Amino acid sequence: MKEFNEYIIANEPIIRLSFFVSILLLMSLFEYIIPKKELLLSKFKRWSNNISIIVVNSFLLKFIFASSIITISIYTTENKIGLLNLFEISFFFSVILSIILLDLIIYFQHRLFHKIDFFWKFHKVHHSDMDFDVTTGLRFHPIEIIISMLIKMISVFIIGVPIIAIVIFEIILSSLSMFNHSNIKLPAILDKRLRYFIVTPDMHRIHHSIHNEELNSNYGFNISLWDRIFSSYTNKPKNGYEKMTIGLKEFYDENKTVSILNILSLPFRKK
Ligand SMILES: [Zn+2]
Hints:
The chain is mainly alpha-helical. It has one domain. It has helices at 2-33, 43-78, 83-86, 91-115, 117-127, 142-159, 163-180, 188-195, 201-207, 212-215, 225-229, 254-257, 260-265. The longest helix is centred in the N-terminal third of the chain and has 36 residues, at 43-78.
């Protein structure tokens, strides 16, 4: 197990980067071939700024948090701390259970980010994007990234998540976030079938609506079931997927939401 963990730790950055680049390119290609909704703003301007904030966040995660979360995971495994280490369950089952539990936690974390003013201040940056495409899925304020990582560290400690489960979960989260924010037109029947299991672009686009009742629904990131179980599911937007307005009423202005300086300062600005 020690060699296996060492192998994962040594190769994790390159595995994650390969997935990240491949899914980003694949979704961008699909957005070009089968776009769903006409974009409002200049793609070049939005993308250059959204990608800049993604680079800032990636450095933050890589250099400050990645090693800390792995250290916590090793500590819980070696000292048999954490819920999953209390029971005699197979390694495979503990990996699957960890991934499902982490997904449930970030579902509730997302609800909290909408409910509590201090968290919403930072989460607003993600919702202030006036278009919805693959880069929106990674456009978060660095402080939201830090808060999310702290919650994840505590969760890993309490659950006793194995290292491999953290790596798999992070890859699924980043890949599905790019997928379910992508501006791609899936055949209706495929969307319907996929939606039984995972969050699809149409399902998540509703969460980026300017209307409050739609904005405060469809919080799921990966597994679509949580919204159905916890009564936060909206089936379709009232203005239709192509006609719905994306963004926030209070910051519906290109000059206040697109540039990296606007993205970073938005939580501290008045409407
Ligand atoms: Zn949200």
